[in-house]
Queue: 2 jobs
Job 1
Amino acid sequence: MNNESLEIRDLEISDVESVAEIRIRGWQNTYADQMPDDYLKNLSLEKTILRWREVLSNPVRDRKAVGAFISGKLIGYISMGPNRSEDEINSGEIFAIYVEPDLQKMGIGTRLINTSTEFFASLGYSYATLWVLHTNVQAMSFYERKGWSASGKRKTESLGNFEISEIQYTRYL
């Protein structure tokens, strides 16, 4: 793939099914040895489509969902907006970033993450954050190569009948 054939644009309602499919494949591929198999196997395409339809049907000025496309086919996306944490003032947050598993390490994630930092800077934020599963070494390495660093903050969330531990990463803009 050459980067000139890569189109980066805001996601539209017509992209909902492709976004949901990439999210589910991304979770199943990335977290195969990090989360219970039955949880990953039972991720709901229908629920994911409904959630993304809601997101893309109600655009908000300080939130953005951007896709990476080759020949009109969605191959990755990133979603971002104001930081959800009340103690993180004047900052943005990357909510999700996924690239088709067989197209990773080709510069697509870099283009998407650069889009987020440009968007956050345009809103006047001084820094951005994201959360990564504490066992996702590949993602942490990617973020660190892109100038992000672990902030020292951790959180635990329940997913179904198990818990996940996440580490916050920060990047000053």
Note: Residues 3-125 form a domain with the Aminopeptidase fold (CATH 3.40.630.30).
Job 2
Amino acid sequence: MAHKIVLVSGAGGFIGRWSVPRLIAGGYQVHAVLGRAAGGAAGRELPVQLRGAEIHRTDLLDAEAVRALMALVKPSHLLHFAWIATPGLYWTSLDNRRWLSASQHLLQCFHDHGGVRAVMAGSSAEYDWSRVGVCDERSSPLADDAGVAITPYAECKIAMQKALEHFGSAHQLSTAWGRIFFQFGPDEHPDRLVASVIVNLLSGREAPSSHGRQIRSFLHVADVGSAFAALLDSDTTGAVNIGSGVPVSIAELLEKIALQIGRPELLRLGARTASPSEPPLLVPAVDRLCGEVGWRPHFSLTDGVADTIGWWRTKLADGSNETNR
């Protein structure tokens, strides 16, 4: 395709913004959709990653606004991140169902205006954590396969992935679905694990954690964004895990953070009780991402931690209000 126009929803979010530089470098004309609470509102500056993109402030839960946006942009490609993601709320919020409906409407409007390829963001929460440790897109059971109650977030993400696949098949639309595993990096919500530990240690406070024996896979958010851009730019279809694929215990990650900051004595492993629902092992198989898509991460875990600590040092030194969001 000579001219590639991509609409990126949730482009002001933690992950979405990091897809934009890679897309621009790949020759895309990028239209970045910011929601009601995105950067640039209430005195906040736009994320620097959005430089070079055309900005649209559109409520994607407003069906008429979405129709108007698609008619204006007429994108050839769609990269859809927008969804409820507020820590502590998104697992059970009824807004998940609103976003499921809005995402289906977004997809229909995209197709109606000539779109040819759509990639949407899913989650590791779609897998059945009680029956799988290493998650493979082609064989691992999903949470709804077990016939037990699942969270509204997982239920709606699974439903959207299936809707995307069926819609693509019915309308000859190329589609893919990126299942995100565990990410961290600059501007992460301060209530999340890595950010909270970094902020506490840099502030000279204790950082309590569970025992940390859980095995996970962590990826710097810039790499998550670039992986989605690479997936969009590929011909790969279906579900694709987005993660590093390198297993590491939570304790090892937190100890790495504490040592880099120089305050290991403030890390309190075992101070909090681990949730009984937390699986001991949860990591992605990344054969499709690395083999079919041909993507490779830029950051090692050590370098990613250093980059994130450096970002928080600057924010705290500047007296930024970012840590109070």
Note: DSSP finds nine helices and 15 strands in the chain.
